[in-house]
Amino acid sequence: MKYRLIEGGGVTAPKGWLAGAVYTAIKKRENRKPDVAVLYSEQPASCAACFTTNKFCAAPVILGREILKKGKARAVVINSGNANAATGEQGIQDAKAVQALAEELLGLGKDEVFVSSTGVIGQRLPVEKVMDGVRQIVPMLSADKGSDAAWAIMTTDLVRKECAYELELSGGTIRIGAMCKGSGMIHPNMATLLSYVTTDAKVEADELQKMLSAACDKSFNMLTVDGDTSTNDSLFLMANGASGVELKTEEDKEAFAKIVEVICVDMARRIAADGEGATHLLEVEAYELPTEHDARLVARSIAGSNLFKCAVFGRDANWGRIMAAAGYSGADVDPTHADCIIRSAAGEVQVMEDGFGTDFSEELAKKVLTEHDITVVVRFHQGEGSAKAFGCDLTYDYVKINGDYRS
Amino acid sequence: MKYRLIEGGGVTAPKGWLAGAVYTAIKKRENRKPDVAVLYSEQPASCAACFTTNKFCAAPVILGREILKKGKARAVVINSGNANAATGEQGIQDAKAVQALAEELLGLGKDEVFVSSTGVIGQRLPVEKVMDGVRQIVPMLSADKGSDAAWAIMTTDLVRKECAYELELSGGTIRIGAMCKGSGMIHPNMATLLSYVTTDAKVEADELQKMLSAACDKSFNMLTVDGDTSTNDSLFLMANGASGVELKTEEDKEAFAKIVEVICVDMARRIAADGEGATHLLEVEAYELPTEHDARLVARSIAGSNLFKCAVFGRDANWGRIMAAAGYSGADVDPTHADCIIRSAAGEVQVMEDGFGTDFSEELAKKVLTEHDITVVVRFHQGEGSAKAFGCDLTYDYVKINGDYRS
To answer: How many angstroms separate the CA atoms of B247 and B230, rounded?
Structure first.
């Protein structure tokens, strides 16, 4: 499999994808950060999506599930600052109004436009502002504006999250790009957020959906920032075929499925690293559990433990909390022969071996935990199940950010 | 049912119960807070207990489950500062050594003494210190020292947690007393902690167990401080019959079961109010769900939501987060006609009515949330299931306390 990262690439790196974004003051912002974005394909695209499992899903999610049934779409309108969630029938009407306007201005048919919203729950969508944004953006859609769109969808995110890759297939080169936003209310399933993956490969919707669901299981569904599953989580994958390249062989299919996973994991790591208030990216690798399911439970439980996350913030190698989190994960897990290593660019320290705490160097542990990216490896010698989860530490700033989010 | 609170009462308020505590420097403490306690009954006692469901349970829990099979015991040795968890076979041996010494010094038979430990996970129990503590305490056991024991078992708790009640039964008056400690690593099931309930009523072990399990379901299993289920959670109920009063009638049994629930809820509320870093006690009442199970899921999910807990800390009536937490609780919950009220001694504010956010006064909401004790009431109009959960807010101090707990 031959692929490479496209420097500075995002959702408009693949052929035939345009974007645009403007500031409409949904929330007053001195820096006039854009808050409405449009992502558009110049030709029809197959689409796949994964949505939140929260019972109180937002209006855009309800609408999105309907559109997804057709497996075809051309565009997405996204706003930040208001989630259009817990807004009842009015929220659906508002989402449909935005959708209808975009379809009209883009010259598309009915239900060819998805909408997405992120921000405060329970307040009516400022629909006039969003529609005004759409009116401004449509005439200036461009292949240069992917990064503006990535900026527009941010809420409490500190950095834009976008990337793109180029992949060689038997019939030629395709591109795949992505943008996403976190950064609180992120927990499996699924782990966030708004995330958009575009490609110019030619792939049918049902195949796309299988690949996306599998990739989501390895990435966003293994991501936790705060244990709160959002009402708005949406992950889209849209393929417009503009490269003219199809998935002809089994190798092509495997390579494309893999690149979808790569880009989803890339996005999930960026979201974890930029979790609200986070000062550490935390990756947890669980090995040799009875089943993959057990390994997933263990990895996510450790990555999501408030106590361990505080310890990471405090640069304290408190491995007892790691094991406690494994123990209450619900997995079939036996501590008798457990090993645990904490690793970073500064080195690694084995804190538990064959079921017992080791006499490790606290000084080295502190050094290891000083790095931004921390990996915890646990191994249980019970079977062949393994999994990886993504998270971050729990800090003063998480509390600060969420103590006055609405104000 | 006639009962009254005994002012200043605790585990030694019931007849025939003695206690004692000393400082043995398991952790160095300038104020020489006691860290080993013994609780002792002058006569044999029936016993019941509920233990943690964490797979990596601590040595005292493993030992306790064995003792419980007999349904009889006379004493408990408790230490704070070290959890004797993740300590393997050595931990079991250490726990047994403490047990054996206490049995010898108290003149008891084999397996008549429980042990409990709370504190850091993964470090060997300083068994000589604990045994030294037992040697000092046994000669000075007294009915006046219940409060010393309640102090000794504290870790990051800020206040002692103890209470006692007197209850009139058909055959006379009985007493029931309790002490417990939180305050982090508290989450269902079960919700903490170390908790000891003593009584001088005469009740058989199997009946005690039924009553305790039912009470635990209404109290400690509905309590969440941080989502982390401890390795050491233990709740004991011991009845020595020293009052000579039995449960003769159905009314007696109901009244006694009720007082067990009252004392467990009392303890659970105290733990929530003293949650690590907490500035608010949070009670969540969920009504009119399809089943009680659904109501329990909803109430606990709201009480445990990091995002909502931060909002409470910030005195922000962010009801969207309440509804989001209900939505991801796993319960069969429908937001269409949901009502939500936030209430305190300062008044109440209805933030959601019949599925929609209301135009409530932010000023009043702020005032309501300024009080220490906050109650959130959600009502779904779907059925007759109701439940109540106990929690606290998430604050800077929670992060601070757990960022350097070991040091």
So the answer is: 34
